[in-house]
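job 3f2a | input accepted
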Amino acid sequence: MEQVYLENISKSFGKTVAVKDLTLKVMKGEFVAILGPSGCGKTTTLRIIAGLEKPDKGRVFIAGRDVTNLPPGKRRIAMVFQFYALYPTTVYENIALPLKRHMSKAEIKKRVKEVAEILEISHLLNVHVNKLTIFEKQKVALARAIAKEADVYLLDEPLTLLDPVSRIKMRHEFKRIQKEFTGTFIYVTHDQFEAMSLADRIAIMNAGVLQQEGTPEEVYFSPKNTFVATFVGEPGMNLVEATVLDCNDFLKLKLGDNIISLPIETRYKEYFSKVREVLIGFRPEHVIFGSNTGLPLKGRILFKEFLGYRSLIHIDLGSERSIIAVVNKLSQFMKLNKDDIVELSIRPDNILLFSKEGVRL
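job 3f2a | predicted structure (361 res):
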């Protein structure tokens, strides 16, 4: 069942288009992340769902009801903001205050206790929020939201204020809460790690337009365009301009100073016979050092980055074409040096092709 349905939503602020013709379905019990860079329209989309912004066009449905013209208080939503905005009182009162309109004291006490146990903050209930860490404050803000019986829980970049260590801890908290608390979540973030680790599905936006939606695996391994390919992944997918040399039995391509041949599907032969250049895409972790398997490439090491659990090797393929390779073994990293000529290979099934306009072929 669709818990949230956005139908052809558009929203502009003056001449700036924030959201353009967005259609998105979120199923009951699903955790969906809306991912994209600053200014892509993700927070505007969340505010439209919440009723804090009214769309110029389109309709919003929550739990089967058309709520497009309803105020936030009548939409049965709960929201966690980037800035947690707690009341200057105890943790208990922060969680309890939104419940006082429709619950008895006994029901409130029971509900606060349940939520505090889920978020493991029972020991903080009588503590004033001014004495909490930022990490604890964000947990209280989340507890206040899920204490409400809402049809959908909206989270607007809730981890932004946390330091890197606390952000990882809070990601783990979200995963644990998902198992213990049944609810529908829409989570806005610019952080791909948050989206990939938490979401059942990810909706990726750019310039107000939905670029792709799918599982974390789908958007990572099968991006529909070059924006998704490079935005998802750290580092993003290698995209190399290649010249089409031949497309009869195989697709023969020139990458920098290298020439490779790929199997070609019959339906694409006519397309490749008409174009001179395409973009070849492959993930940095799919670059293999050594030419004994896959399609052979040769390049020169430009520089390398040591990141602890893995390292990045930047490689020049010639003709101003460069790629990044991931190395996971320290022993291999230590053997590679600047200006070394290295032999590489990539399995054909790890290669994606895109048009010059950035569309997946």
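job 3f2a | The chain is about 25% helix and 35% strand.
job 3f2a | closed
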